[in-house]
Amino acid sequence: MCAVVGVINSKNASTVAYYALFAMQHRGQEASGISVSDGLNIKTHKARGEVGQIFNTQILANLKGEIAIGHNRYSTAGNSSLHDAQPVTATCSLGDISLVHNGNLINKEEVRKELIDNGAIFHSNMDTENVVHLIAKSKKETLKDRFVESLMQSKGAYCFMLASKNKLFVVRDPYGVRPLSLGRLKDGGYIVASETCAFDLIEAEFVRDVKPGEMLIFTQGSDEFESIQIFDQVDPRICAFEYIYFARPDSIIEGKSVYEVRKKMGETLAKKFKEKVDFVVPVPDSGVSAAIGFAQYLKIPLEMAIVRNHYVGRTFIEPTQEMRNLKVKLKLNPMKKVLEDKDIVVIDDSVVRGTTSKKIIALLKQAGARKIHLAIACPEIKFPDIYGIDTPTFEELISANKNIEEVREYTGADSLIFLDIDELVSSIGNERKYSLISFNGDYFIQ
Amino acid sequence: MCAVVGVINSKNASTVAYYALFAMQHRGQEASGISVSDGLNIKTHKARGEVGQIFNTQILANLKGEIAIGHNRYSTAGNSSLHDAQPVTATCSLGDISLVHNGNLINKEEVRKELIDNGAIFHSNMDTENVVHLIAKSKKETLKDRFVESLMQSKGAYCFMLASKNKLFVVRDPYGVRPLSLGRLKDGGYIVASETCAFDLIEAEFVRDVKPGEMLIFTQGSDEFESIQIFDQVDPRICAFEYIYFARPDSIIEGKSVYEVRKKMGETLAKKFKEKVDFVVPVPDSGVSAAIGFAQYLKIPLEMAIVRNHYVGRTFIEPTQEMRNLKVKLKLNPMKKVLEDKDIVVIDDSVVRGTTSKKIIALLKQAGARKIHLAIACPEIKFPDIYGIDTPTFEELISANKNIEEVREYTGADSLIFLDIDELVSSIGNERKYSLISFNGDYFIQ
Amino acid sequence: MCAVVGVINSKNASTVAYYALFAMQHRGQEASGISVSDGLNIKTHKARGEVGQIFNTQILANLKGEIAIGHNRYSTAGNSSLHDAQPVTATCSLGDISLVHNGNLINKEEVRKELIDNGAIFHSNMDTENVVHLIAKSKKETLKDRFVESLMQSKGAYCFMLASKNKLFVVRDPYGVRPLSLGRLKDGGYIVASETCAFDLIEAEFVRDVKPGEMLIFTQGSDEFESIQIFDQVDPRICAFEYIYFARPDSIIEGKSVYEVRKKMGETLAKKFKEKVDFVVPVPDSGVSAAIGFAQYLKIPLEMAIVRNHYVGRTFIEPTQEMRNLKVKLKLNPMKKVLEDKDIVVIDDSVVRGTTSKKIIALLKQAGARKIHLAIACPEIKFPDIYGIDTPTFEELISANKNIEEVREYTGADSLIFLDIDELVSSIGNERKYSLISFNGDYFIQ
Amino acid sequence: MCAVVGVINSKNASTVAYYALFAMQHRGQEASGISVSDGLNIKTHKARGEVGQIFNTQILANLKGEIAIGHNRYSTAGNSSLHDAQPVTATCSLGDISLVHNGNLINKEEVRKELIDNGAIFHSNMDTENVVHLIAKSKKETLKDRFVESLMQSKGAYCFMLASKNKLFVVRDPYGVRPLSLGRLKDGGYIVASETCAFDLIEAEFVRDVKPGEMLIFTQGSDEFESIQIFDQVDPRICAFEYIYFARPDSIIEGKSVYEVRKKMGETLAKKFKEKVDFVVPVPDSGVSAAIGFAQYLKIPLEMAIVRNHYVGRTFIEPTQEMRNLKVKLKLNPMKKVLEDKDIVVIDDSVVRGTTSKKIIALLKQAGARKIHLAIACPEIKFPDIYGIDTPTFEELISANKNIEEVREYTGADSLIFLDIDELVSSIGNERKYSLISFNGDYFIQ
C-alpha cells in the first residue's frame, strides 16, 4: 500500500501535505515523512509512527516552501526501521532532490546489486533508494532526463514523486496499478495524491486521474504543467484490491465511488445467497459497505452485532495463552443480547489465512448465534501479490491450499460463499482490465 | 464519565485490570492508572495518555498481586495534570490504601476547605483526594468504618473502589447514577467494572449489577464477600446519558442492551418522522445504532454516507482559519457521489452547542444533498449536569436558549426533531426513574 | 550533605538560585529543585540529576518572582526517587509554602508516625515533609509561629529555608552543625546559602554567617530583616567534615578558608612524618590542598602522579570481574613514568572503609612505586554520624574495627599516619568546639 | 582532535572500545560511536553526547563481536548533527565496512565534488565519508587495495581505522601528525588507540607506536599482523599541541610522558622568569603540570588559588549581560583569602584569542592580588592550523595581530612571557621535527 502526496505552488505546501497524509493514514501507519523545497534547498522530516504524532506546528513551520512531497509507509516487514521511512533525499550534482514511492519494483535486487558493484552506498532496504542512486549517477543533463532514464531501469507497479528545488515530477507506472489523482487547491496550487479523500479534507477540486505511464512536470510559479507519456502504451490494470479493501470508502478511483463498488459487491453476493437468516452482520469496519449492499438487496435487517474497539492500535500487551481469542476480541466484540438464537450471515471483505474468520465465527457461536453463514465480498485469494501488496506466501493462503468446502469447514461457518472473479469485475464495472493477480495468478509485469 | 475497575483473587490482577481499562477506553482517554496490592504493600503506575501507551509488559510484571484497581480519566477541564490521574494513594495508620472514583462530589469545595484548615496537604484538584484524606484522618478503628464515615461526608453521584493490602471495597452512590457491575473471572476471582463490555473481553461472567447505595467488601483469599447498604433507600436514578452516548453499544446496563435501547430510540424517532427521504444517514459512530432502528422501522435504506477517520485522536495540528470546517472534516467526510441530489435524514445522538450539527449540515449541503432533515435520538439539552458529566454552561447550551425552530434555523437543517423526555424514558423502559437533569433540571442530589 | 539557597528581593530570584546551586553542585548531584514565589503563588521545578541538566532558559523564565529557594540533594540511599527531591511544597490554610532542608532530623520516625496516626498523608520518605505537615497542622495564626512551633518538635542538625508568598524564613539548628551564610546581591537583594563559593559566582557580597539557633525573616520589598533566637543557647559545634571534605576549597566557613585549613592539616601531618620520600602525591581532587601544605612544610616536591578523569559521573557501565580495579582506574590513573622506582607519600582526606585506599596503593605499586607511605589528613573514623552525613555502619568502618597498624596492613601501605583529634582541632583553630562524632562518638544532640 | 580506537581478537571488543573511549573522552565530547563485526555483519551505535550517556549494558550486549572500532567526536563547528557522528558505515560490493577518522583532509572539497559529480550520495559533511565512497567505488579486488587507493587520493593529517567483517586496518598519515599507539590486551587481542591512557585503564600492554605512513592489517583469529609502508618516507612531524594541551598528562606520546614534557616546559619558562613573586598559581586543569615544573625549578610555593568547578559541562544557562565574567567564573573561582595582597605568577598552557586570559587576570585583581605575572607554556600562536585542530582565523588570533607587549597590555598582566619555538622543541626533546604550524606557519602538507 503506502500513500504519496505532492503539492506545488501553495504557500503552506507542507501543511497541505500533512493534512493529505492524515486523510490517507489508513494506507500506512508505520512511518511518515514530508520534504519541502524553499526554492533553494530541500528540508525533510520523517519518523516512525502516525502522522499526528510525527508532526507538530513547530516542525511544519520549519518546513517552509511551495513544493512538498509526503509519504505514509505501510509496514510490509517486521524489520523496518527509521532508515526505511520516506522521502529519500540526496544532494546530487544537480542539487537537492527528494523522492517518494508507492508500490514495488520487481527488479529491485538486480538493480541494487549493480549499483553497489559500482560503488553506490545504500542506507536503507527500500527500492526507492535505487531510483535516487540511478538519478544521482545518471550522466543526463536535466533532472527530467535523469528521472526518465532511471524509470526505464525500474520495473514494477508504482507511483513516484520527485521534488527538486523548483520542480515536482509525478509519474504512474505503465499499467496504472496504483491509483493517483490530480487536484487543484483553492489557492491555485496543484496537489497529486494516492486517493481523492485527501482532496475532500483540504477542499481541493478533483481535476483528473493521472494516466497510466504518464509523467506530469510542474514548475514552481507556473500554472502550466507538462504531461508526457514515457512508456509504450499497454492495457491499464488498476489493482482490484484498491476497491476491495485498500482505499477509503469515500475515495473515487478511476471515476468509481469505492463505497458504491463495495455495496455492489455485497449486492452481487446477495444475489447468490440462498440461506434464510434473521439479519446481516458486517465485520466492522471492512465489511460494512458490502453488508449494506447485501442487506438492501435482500431487504433483510442489518445489525451492527459486532462492535469494534477503535482504540486498538499498534500498542497493546500480547495476551497470555490462557486468554485465547483475546487478540481478536480486543478489536471485535459480538453482542450476545442481539445474537442469541439468531441465524445470521456475516459479511467480510476477504479471507487470507482464514484464522481471523475462524476466530470470529467462534466468538459469534459463543455469543449464542445459531446458524452462521459467511459471505466474502471478494474471490478466493490463491496467489501472492508481488506488486506492492503485503500478501502472505502460497503456504499461508488458505484458498491456495483448500477448496471452498474445506475453508468453510476450517472456519466453522455453516455455509460460505465468495464472489467469483467475473462477479468482482462486473461489480467494479466491466469496461476495463484489472490487476487480479491474487485471484488468477496473472503476473503481467515481467 | 471516567471508568473504574476492581479485581480481587486473580493471580494477574493488574493484567485483568489493564484489559478491562482497554475495553473501557471510550470512557476516558486523558490518563490511566492501576494500583495493585501484593498482600503487604500497594504499588501504583499512572500516567497521562491512553491505556495502550501507558502500560507495557514490564510495567505490568512489576505490578504483581491479587488485588488491583484501575481508572481511565476523562478530560473534564483543560488544566488537568499528572497530579489529576488516579488511583490516589496514601500510607495511613492502617497501611497503604488506594482509591479510584468515577463521578462528581457536589460538596467537594467545602470538604476540601475544611480539610485544609485542619492541616491536610493536597496534591491534586480531584475530589477523590478528599475521600483519601477523610479516611486517613478518621479515628474509626477499621478501614471499613473509616470508608463509610468518609462517604457520609461526601455528597454526589459516584462509584468508589478502595484497595487495602488485603481488601477491596466497592461502593455505588445511593441513587446509582453511574453504572457498576459485578463479574466472575474464569480463575474464580471477582471483577467489578463500570461497563460489562470489560467482562466480555476477558471472558468474565456477569453476576449482577452493584445496587445503588450498596457497598461490597471482598477479602483476599475468600470466595465470600460482604454486602451492606450504607445509605437510606431512595429511588434509584441511573444517568440516561449512559444509554444515550456514554456507554459502549455492547454493554448491558441494568439488564438492558445499550445497542437495543439506542435502536429503540431511533425507532421512536422514526414513528414521528413525517418527511419523505431517499435514505437515512447516521453521524458515525455515535448515531449508527439509532439510525439502524430508524431505518428498520421505516423500511428505508441506511447509507454510511459520512465516513469517519478513526485516526483522529488527541493530536493533530489545529487548522488555520482559511481552512474552515477542517476540524470537523478531519473526522467526518460526506460522500458526494452518494449524496448528490438526495433527500436525507441525518441521525445524531444529541445537540449540545449546535455548532457541530451546523457544520455537518453545511458539509452535507456542500456535498450536494438536497433536503437535509435532522433527527436527534435524545431530548433537548436545557440544563447543565453537575453530577459528573462535562456539559457546558447554560449560555453555551443551544436548547437552553433557543426553541426547536430556532435551533433548526441555526443548524441549517430542513426539519428537526428530538425525542421528548417521555419517549426517551419509554425507549429505555418505563419501569424505573432516570437521572434526566440535562433535560428537566431536576437536581435531585442536594 | 545537600546544599540549600534562598534568595529574596531580586528580580530574577530563580536564576540567582540556579547559579548558586550550580556552584554548590559538589554537595549533591542526586536531584535539584527551585521554588519561586511571584507574590501570590509558588511554582516549583525539581527533577533527578544535575543542576545543568534539570534547568534551561525556558524553565527558569517560567519561574518568575522575587523570592526563590533551591536545593541540591545528596544521594544518601539507593532507593531515593523523584518524590525525594526538594523543595517540598504544600497549599495550607495560610496559602502556598515551600521548604528546603539540609541535614537530618533524629526524631524523624516518631514525628512521622504521630503525624500519620493523626491523618497526615506522606508522599516521600524525607524528614523535610514532617516539617511541612507540622506547619500545615499547626493552629498558630502566623506562619512564623507555625514554623517555630514545628522546629520545636524537630530535633537534629539542619538548615531550613521556608518560602511563602511574600516571606523567606531561614533557620540554622542550635548547634550550627551545617554552615549557612548571608550575602548581599548587587541589585540589593539578599542571598542565604550553604557555602560562600555560591556568593563568589554571582558576585554577592558576604555579610555574615547565620548564627546557630538564629532565624532570619525576610519580607519581600523590605530591606530590613528580622533576626530572632528561637532556641536556648548552647555551645556551637560546626561539623569538622565540612573542613575535611564536604566544602569547596574556595569557601569560607565561620571565617576560615577551607583551602587554608586543609593546607594546615597537611602541614600538621608533615610535622610528624618521619619517612624519606622522593615526592608527595595527592589523591585528586580531595587530597590536593593537604598535599600542598604537606609538601611546602617539608620542602619536597609535589607531583600530580595520579590523574583524575573528570568525565566519570553517575553513568558508566559496571566492569565485569575480569577487569578488577577498573572502577577506581576509571577515575584515577597513576603515571608509571613518574612513579617508577620512587619512594612516595600519598595524601588523602580520609579512610572510611579502606577499600579505596587499598586499591590506590595496589595501582601505585603496579605502576612501579617502591615505598608507598600513606598520610591521612583527618583522624581515624570510628563512629557513624547520624546528623546528616552518609557514613557507613560500625561494621563497615575500618578504623572502628582495626588499629592503625592493622589498617596499614590492610591497605598495603609501607607506613600510615592519621591526624589525631587535637591536631585536627588545632588545624582548624582551637577557639571553638566542633562536631567530632565520627572520631570521638560524642552524640551531643539527643 | 577526536579520539579513535580499534580492537581485534577480543571477546568483548565493543566493551574494550567503550572503556578506551571513556579514557579518551577529553579528546571529544560532541558525539561517540562504536561499530562491531560479528564475523559476518557490522553493527553500529552512535549518538551525540558523552560516552557514558550514549552506551549502556544492553546496547553493548547487542554489539557482539571480536572486532570493534570507536570514535569520540570533537565539536569543530556549530552546525554538527547526528549525521556527523562516526563511525561511518556502508555495505559495498565487498560487504559491510565501517570507518573512523581522527584528523582533517585538506583536499576534502575537491574530492567530494568529484564524487558527487559521479553520482555519490553523501549523508554528512565529514571528510570521513569521502574515503568510504572512494572505497565503495574502487574497482580494486581486495579491501586492502581499495583502502590504499582511497588514501592515495586523500591528503591531510589523520589516523584511519577501517573494519570489515574479519579484518581491521589501521593507518597513520605519512607525517604522523596525530598520535597512534598499538597495545596488547590481556586476553591476547590487539588494541590501537590515539592515546596510551586508554591502555592503562583496561590494563593493555603498550607494544609500540604506529609509525608515520604505516598501515597495520589485522585478521580475526590470527595473532600475526601485517605492516606495510604505503607512502614515500618523509620527516615525521607530530603535532606539538598534543604535548601542549590535547593529550592527557598520563599518556606517553612517542616515548615521552606528556606530564613530564609539560613540567619541562614550565621549568624552561621558569629559567627566564625574572620577577619576584609570593607563589605560583596554575590555571586549572590545563596549567597545572607546567606550574609544578615552574615552581619546582624556582623553589617557590605552588598554590591552587584558582578553583575549578568540574560540573561545568556543555549545558548551563548563558548568563545575562549584567552577570559579566560569570561564564569564566562558573568554571574558575580565585580565592580572595589566599590571593589578597600577594604577588603571583599565573601559568597557563596557551593564549589563543586572549579573552580568557584577560578575564582571569581581572578576576585575580578583583580577588586582591597585587602584581600578576603571566607565563604561558607555549609560543605565541600566530597561524591557524588547518590539519585538524580547531584554531580560529588570523583575525581572531591575538598573537597574529599584536606583539607580546600589546598582548600583555590587553590582558592586564603586569608582565608576560611565552616559550619561544626553540624552547618548546627542546622541552619536548630535540631529536625530531614537530608540526609547529600555529607558531611558524609552516604548512608542510600541500
From TrEMBL, chains A, B, C, D:
Enumerate the CDD domains for this protein. GPATase_N (cd00715), PRTases_typeI (cd06223)
Question: For this chain's UniProt record, which GO biological process terms are given?
Answer: 'de novo' IMP biosynthetic process; purine nucleobase biosynthetic process
The record's listing under SUPFAM superfamilies reads: N-terminal nucleophile aminohydrolases (Ntn hydrolases), PRTase-like
Q: Which UniProt keywords apply?
A: Glutamine amidotransferase, Glycosyltransferase, Magnesium, Metal-binding, Purine biosynthesis, Transferase
User: Which reactions does this protein catalyse?
Assistant: 5-phospho-beta-D-ribosylamine + L-glutamate + diphosphate = 5-phospho-alpha-D-ribose 1-diphosphate + L-glutamine + H2O
Q: Which Pfam families match?
A: GATase_7, Pribosyltran
Broad EC category:
transferase
The gene it comes from is purF
The EC number of this protein is 2.4.2.14
Q: Which GO terms describe its molecular function?
A: amidophosphoribosyltransferase activity; magnesium ion binding
Role this protein plays: Catalyzes the formation of phosphoribosylamine from phosphoribosylpyrophosphate (PRPP) and glutamine.
Query: Which sites bind Mg(2+)?
Result: S286, D348, D349
Question: What is the protein's given name?
Answer: Amidophosphoribosyltransferase
Query: How and how many cofactors are bound, per the record note?
Result: Binds 1 Mg(2+) ion per subunit.
Q: Which PROSITE patterns match?
A: GATASE_TYPE_2 (PS51278)
Q: Can you tell me which residues form the catalytic site?
A: C2 (nucleophile)
State the organism of origin: Campylobacter ornithocola
Q: In which pathway does it act?
A: Purine metabolism; IMP biosynthesis via de novo pathway; N(1)-(5-phospho-D-ribosyl)glycinamide from 5-phospho-alpha-D-ribose 1-diphosphate: step 1/2
What the entry lists under InterPro entries is as follows: GATase_2_dom, Ntn_hydrolases_N, PRTase-like, PRTase_dom, PurF, PurF_N
Question: Gene3D superfamilies attached here?
Answer: 3.40.50.2020, Glutamine Phosphoribosylpyrophosphate, subunit 1, domain 1 (3.60.20.10)
Q: Which family does it belong to?
A: In the C-terminal section; belongs to the purine/pyrimidine phosphoribosyltransferase family.
